[in-house]
Amino acid sequence: MQIKFLKNLDIVLVLVVIVTLIISIFYLQTVYKWWYEDDPSLYASVLTINNPVDIFLNPDIIRTFGSGASVTPMQILSYWIDVHLFGVSPLAAYLHTLASMILIVALLYLIFLRITADRFGSACISLLWLCLPSTIAVYYFLSTRHYLEGFGWSLLSCWIMLCLCSKNEPEASHIKFVIMNVCVLAAMFSKEIYVTTLPTLIFCYSVAKRRYWISISQIILILVYVVFRFWVIGGGNKYPLPLLDGMNYLQYLTKLPYTLTANTGGYVFFCGMVIGSLWLMFTRPSDVKNVLIIHILLIIAALISLYPTAEAVLNTFQVPGTWYRAIFIINSLIILTMGYLLVNYTSRRTQVACLVIMLVFLIPGVHKTRSLWNDRFSQSEQEAKFYLSNPDKLMLSEEAAYWYLPGIDKLYRISHPHFISNCDWRNDHAKQMLAQFPTIWRLEGGRAISDQTLYWFVKAHNM
After folding, report:
1. What is the pLDDT of residues 299-320, one digit of tens each?
2. How many other CB atoms are found less than 10 A from the CB of residue 13?
3. Quick one: 323 and 196 in the same domain?
4. Cα distance between residue 453 and residue 444, in whole Å
5. Phi then psi for 420, rounded to 5 degrees?
6. Which helix (H) or strand (E) is 421 found in, with range?
7. Which of 50, 74, 79, 47 lies closest to 62 in space, CA to CA?
8. Which of the listed residues 345, 372, 399 is the one where a domain comes to its end?
9. In terms of domains, do 283 and 155 share one?
10. How many other C-beta atoms can be found within 10 angstroms of the C-beta atom of residue 139?
11. Is residue 381 in a domain?
12. Residues 453, 329: one domain?
């Protein structure tokens, strides 16, 4: 029995998982992070939910998350599992994210192995996807775990779809069909980006394979989602960002290649991708045409769902920070489609050359992303831990996310807040705090200092 298991064990898959763990733990150091930006307020909200069924049946609970225009009950459930199984623990939360990432990378490898029969190529594609700056940004941020897990649910549904569309599969495998659609719903309820992209992919592929009952199910699921969304938030909620006009939107589209590697190398890769696709179209038109058509449809579907966030991406595309979540699905689709074309239709020499070129541009972007997030994590962790350890000191919060310390108050049930935000220090709250404390404390060079000059400056402007 043991020998049979070892024979069936995919050594390359094991290596992919090990490399994922090494990158995650020793390079990205994802399990050593603390709460950041939205994390405390989101986890504090989940603490008040006793019954997980209410997450899907109580519209008031769903509306407490996000901007008011989001319907993401799977995000709430994911956090609910953390706090109700392990308590208020950032380590447990990041270990949960790590486990999700390992499963996703393994699924990516298995799916690509199924459709390419190439272990080396499948391993490279999976690990390249892991190292994209947009993937790392989503991976780092607990508040965007639902993007990651939504992608995982999408991959699982695609795996089952490939089984259902196989020639060896019975025409009506009811159990797999139900599980696939449950996974599709889980992805759609994780984040809106999967409402447009995932059903589009399954619809197109199942039609091509003449599994029309699968394609019809995707139309039904979209209708179910629309009804559910309308029941939860109605039809009038909008994302709290200005929408771009035509010219600015075109400018936004021109910036997207940059985000692929978080540097100008993304344009080199993008140009190579376009030229390579055109070359494959001329040399293998019957094989490549359908792949590229589906890819273009998926990109269009993703861009539609991401339109409300275009303004934020346009303003911050050079910084691989929290807004890189908005282009996570776009970059994922690009790298996976191009990886599929390379593995299936080019020689090993060409694949290795493209891999080397990609790494030349990607490695600096990975380092840039890692450094940015580590600096931000360190600053916010130091600030919050000093705040929690010194209830007798007035803290100046220099965190750009002004809602960070209020979230800490809720999560750790601080009954007497004692901070002033540098984003908003001229208000009644600031006056009240200044009247209770003789000085202001702030972080400088990694340590807390008392700043009397700043204290009197703020006090003078609040008189």
Report:
1. 999 999 999 999 999 999 999 9
2. 18
3. yes
4. 14
5. -130, 135
6. strand 419-421
7. 74
8. 372
9. yes
10. 27
11. no
12. no
Number of Cβ atoms within 10 Å of the Cβ of 350? 12
Phi (first) and psi of residue 321, to 5 degrees: -105, -145
Query: Can you give the pLDDT at residue 130?
Result: 97
Per-residue confidence (pLDDT) for residue 5, from 0 to 100: 42
Task: State which residues form the domain around 455.
Answer: 390-460
Q: How confident is the model at residue 108 (pLDDT cuts 50, 70, 90)?
A: very high
Indicate the pTM of the whole model.
Answer: 0.93
Sign of the Cα pseudo-torsion (252, 149, 129, 287, in order): negative
pLDDT of 81 above 60? yes
Asked whether residue 396 falls in the same domain as residue 366, the answer is: no
State whether 223 and 119 are in the same domain: yes
451 SS3 class: coil
Give the span between the Cα atoms of 153 and 156, in whole angstroms.
5
φ/ψ of residue 442, rounded to 5? -145, 165
Which residue from 415, 336, 285 is spatially nearest to 124, judged by alpha carbons?
Answer: 336
Number of domains in the chain: 2
Given strand 419-421, what is the order of strands in its sheet? 419-421, 394-397, 440-444, 447-450
CA angle 331, 136, 133 (to 5 degrees): 50
Q: C-alpha distances in angstroms, 340 versus 213, 332, 344, 387?
A: 27, 12, 6, 50
DSSP letter assigned to residue 198: H
Which neighbouring-strand residues pair with 444? 447
